[in-house]
Amino acid sequence: MTKPIAAINDFVVKFANVNGSGSASANGLFAKSILRMGVPVGARNIFPSNIQGLPTWYEVRVSEAGWLGRRGGVDLIVAMNPQTWDADVKSIEPGGYLLYDSSKPLPAAKFRDDITIIGAPLTELIAAEFANPRERQLFKNICYVGVLAQLLGIEGEVVRQLLTEEFKGKDKLIAPNFKAFELGRAYAEKSIEPIGLALKRADKVGDRIFVEGNDAAALGAVYGGASFCAWYPITPSTSLAEAFEKHCKALRTDADGKRRFAIVQAEDEIASIGMVLGAGWAGARSFTCTSGPGISLMNEFVGFSYYAEIPGVIFDVQRGGPSTGMPTRTQQSDLLLAAYASHGDTKHPMLFPANPTEAFEFGALSFDLADRFQTTIFVMLDLDIGMQEWLTEPFKWDAARPLDRGKVVTAEMLDAGFPFGRYRDVDGDAVPYRTYPGTHPTKGSYFTRGSSHDKDARYSERGEDYTEGMERLLRKWQTMKAYVPAPVRKNAKKRTPDAVIYFGSTDPAMEEALCALEAKGVHLDALRIRAFPFQDEVFEFIREHEQVFVVEQNRDAQLKALLVNEGGVHPARLVSVLHYDGTPITARFIIKAISERLDAGHAAAVPEKAQ
User: Fold this and answer.
1) What mean pLDDT is predicted for residues 191-204?
2) Domains in the chain, please, with CATH?
3) What distance in Å separates the CA atoms of residue 36 and residue 161, rounded to the nearest whole number?
4) How far apart are the first and last CA of the chain?
5) Could you tell me if 367 and 327 are in contact, meaning their C-beta atoms sit under 8 angstroms apart?
6) What is the pLDDT of residue 168?
7) Smallest Cα–Cα separation from 509: which of 569, 589, 443?
8) For the segment 445-479, what is each residue's pLDDT rounded down to a tens digit?
9) d(C-alpha 571, C-alpha 558), whole Å
10) What pLDDT is attached to residue 602?
């Protein structure tokens, strides 16, 4: 007989619901209640790309140790969707627990012998107290939170506080919600035996906040000086534009109600990026937010930004592709699309935040970079960061920090005889000066050309003019390396032949995997890349090791391809660890993939020619 799982503050609970059933708020209440007890959680909503009817899951990893990535496996599942019952029951770890609505009996074949079955007549409990059909559906979700609270040890007062905060201004909803909660809790207290999973109050959350990455990035845009957003709705980026509007209403509205921002929902993605670049040309800090299909449509305008040298920011909240792909699933699959967007020879900077705190910081930084280098900056989020709430460090901002507007020629400079030429390399860093439209009535007119031009923005098809301009753009690319976020090196205790490179939302799972591998005697130096162009430090790191695992969430090893292409790295030095099923990567997946390769002898020396 399988022994039931026993754990305190270290387990995974998964909710299996039907989309549109009102379960999201109840499941979020469960996660936040645990946070209020001082125990860290990693919560992820896995939802379909329709409004109602399809399966949806919400996974809560409870980890007093602080691991925030998906662990893999489920210790307790709340099975509320008959459509996915078999798969949900199958996903439970041996010795785990199944909580279900036992109002209607199910045949024994629907269960497993190696798990603990917990039945609670949720429908009956709620039907006896509430008459409205919609209320019955909603409160049934709160009822199972009450059952879980009793079984796991969630404090009732914590739940009461959260419900009071959630329904502030709607006081009449507080009492029935808490009544539904108490129905489940009282039933479990009276009729369900204790289980092996338990919560105990801790002090491991500290001052960290629980926030979505899209919300954080939008706030970063406000602090970074953005005043214009043009966007077209697309999952999973829509909430970023909505959050920007929310924050602007709070922070960019004068006392008399006058708004100091503009937001336009364009007719499509092409129009939105055109508006962004028009605003950037006029001197406003502007951005759009989109996902892979939107980037595909924006390609020609992005190339225009690169060659005409106009600032703009694109927040790319990546999802599964190609084509329409999986709109509500996560991937890191737009790297090559964004890096070389448009036809011809182009290179575009990309920033890779790993959590909402960096989404805020990089969101603000992107506008400084766009202005300084007069180009489009991509902030590469993904659905896992963008649309999930993460426990993350509080945002910090230096109120004295000035906006870096880059090289802007003023009327006073022109009157003093500044030799303005729109595309001239005056300072030797390949970054030209620009003016804002209307800077001076007679001097320094603002010329911009997306067609071939010379140093002074005059139309030219002379080969030497084109070559000179393209080579300067390449030198400007080299200058950028000193300004984009540097990579973060971890685990560098000693020189070993093997190492790992990763980026973005892979970070929490990778942190846990590194710790677990170390406990097994496998040491890996680690480097988290935070930006493209890659600094020289990245390639020095690769040269220090015989073999470097590159962990990324796409099929075609796009980060590896960029490393090979940009640094001349021999492909034999880089071993891909690829995860692309649409769910966030787990520590278990990383550990298994790397261990198997090492055990199979893939850690042998690289051939001599692999320089």
Assistant:
1) 98
2) 7-198 (3.40.920.10), 210-392 (3.40.50.970), 407-484 (no CATH), 488-599 (3.40.50.920)
3) 10
4) 55
5) no
6) 86
7) 589
8) 677 888 999 999 999 999 999 999 999 999 999 99
9) 13
10) 47
Helix (H, G, I), strand (E, B) or coil at 601: coil
Give the model's pLDDT for residue 494: 65
Pairwise CA distance, residues 427 & 422, whole Å? 13
599-603 contacts: CB < 8 A, separation 24 or more?
602/547, 602/575, 603/497, 603/498, 603/546, 603/547
If one counts every other C-beta atom within 10 angstroms of the C-beta of residue 416, the result is 8
Contact 299, 286 (CB under 8 A): no
**Residue whose token pair is 């785990």:** 96
Q: What Å distances lie between residue 325 and 36, 52, 125, 315, CA to CA? A: 37, 19, 41, 19
Looking at residue 160, its pLDDT comes to: 93
Cβ atoms < 10 Å from Cβ of 608: 6
Least confident among 233-237, 544-548, 599-603: 599-603
| Residue 21 confidence class, pLDDT cut points 50, 70, 90 | confident
**Residue 411 in this model has a pLDDT that exceeds 70:** yes
Q: For 135-162, give one letter per residue: b (16+ CB within 10 A) or e.
A: bbbbbbbbbbbbbbbbbbbbeeebbeeb
Residues contacting residue 187 through CB under 8 Å, at least 6 positions apart: 120, 121, 125, 146, 147
Question: Strand (E) positions, 513-593?
Answer: 525-529, 531-532, 547-552, 574-578
> Among residues 378, 349, 322, which one has the least CA distance to residue 554?
322
Residue 151 host element (H or E): helix 133-152
pTM greater than 0.70 (yes/no): yes
| pLDDT(608) > 70 | no
Rounded distance, CA 537 to CA 489, Å? 10
Task: Say if residues 446 and 437 touch (Cβ distance below 8 Å).
Answer: yes
Residue 455's SS3 state is coil
- Of 527, 550, 549, which Cα lies nearest the Cα of 540? 527
Classify the C-alpha dihedral 80-86-87-92 as positive or negative: positive
Beta bridge partners of 381: 317
Output the DSSP codes for 553-570. Answer: SSSS-HHHHHHHHHH---
- CA-to-CA dists, residue 25 to 28, 30, 34, 140, 162, angstroms: 5, 9, 14, 12, 11
H/E stretch holding 101 reads: strand 92-101
Measured from the Cβ of residue 275, the count of other Cβ atoms closer than 10 Å reads 21
Please list the helix, strand and coil fractions of the chain in percent, rounded to the nearest 5, in that order. 40, 20, 40
Two tokens at 241?
């534009």
Peptide linkage before 40 cis (omega within 30 of 0): no
Going by C-beta distance under 8 Å and a sequence separation of 6 or more, which residues neighbour residue 608?
A: none
CB 446 within 8 A of CB 435: yes
